[in-house]
Design a protein that fits this description.
Lipocalin; six-stranded antiparallel barrel; mainly beta; two-stranded antiparallel sheet
Length: 227
């Protein structure tokens, strides 16, 4: 190989290295540009959900999974929609206590484990039951409900009501709790002077309640799947 040919070969090699380097940098920039931006939903935010299937201390069992549907969409602090209305909130029954003959009502503990968006994106969450009454949360102009008190996380379904309707009550830690729902006066059964069996938990399909996030969770901006 003559000196001129070696020189040409060397230039060709250098050009190949340069082109490969440029291509690699371009690919890296494109990947960074296409990488989704994640936004945070802070701990303490409450989702308004609607139960999809009835639950009850007589009919449900520990370990049973159930679903509820998100009523109001969730937004980032900057107003980006992250979780649309109609997303599915997955929950699990963790403890059931049947009603007692001494008037003590049945109770049921649940947790919420994940969110499934209409575009099939799934994200794990750490959520618990909470109240949506006026004392339990604020609703802003985007329909997002935020709990006022962290004590409202210590709630469970409680049996009660003249028709056995479910109520929600704070029972943890011996602190002062709250009850919501119809027929609360009949909750204990012994109020009328007679000791009778407490009410069982009966949460009908369609019941609305709150799910409070115990830990922050991140989502990309919601994009519907292409048809």
């Amino acid at each position: 190989m003559t000196g001129k040919m070696r020189q040409i070969a060397t230039v060709a090699v250098l050009l190949t290295i340069a082109v490969n380097g440029i291509a690699q940098k371009t690919a890296q920039k494109t990947a960074r540009r296409n990488r989704p931006v994640f936004y945070s939903i802070h701990a303490g935010q409450t989702m308004r959900v609607r139960l999809n299937k009835a639950l009850g201390s007589e009919t449900s069992h520990v370990g049973e999974y159930f679903t509820s549907t998100l009523v109001d969409p969730l937004y980032s602090s900057s107003g980006v929609m992250l979780v649309p209305q109609g997303s599915i909130v997955n929950g699990k029954v963790t403890q059931i206590k049947r009603a007692q003959k001494n008037g003590e009502p049945g109770t049921m503990d649940v947790v919420f484990t994940s969110l499934r968006l209409p575009n099939a994106y799934i994200r794990g969450i750490n959520g618990t039951l909470t109240d949506l009454s006026g004392s339990g949360g604020n609703s802003d102009n985007e329909g997002t409900v935020t709990a006022k008190k962290t004590s409202n996380r210590n709630v469970k379904f409680i049996g009660g009501g003249a028709a056995g309707g479910a109520v929600i009550g704070a029972i943890a830690g011996g602190g002062k709790g709250f009850l919501i729902g119809a027929g609360i006066g009949a909750l204990a059964g012994g109020i009328t002077g007679r000791v009778k069996k407490g009410g069982e938990v009966k949460v009908p399909s369609g019941t609305e309640f709150g799910v409070i996030l115990n830990q922050a969770v991140t989502f990309p901006k919601y994009v519907a799947r292409a048809m």
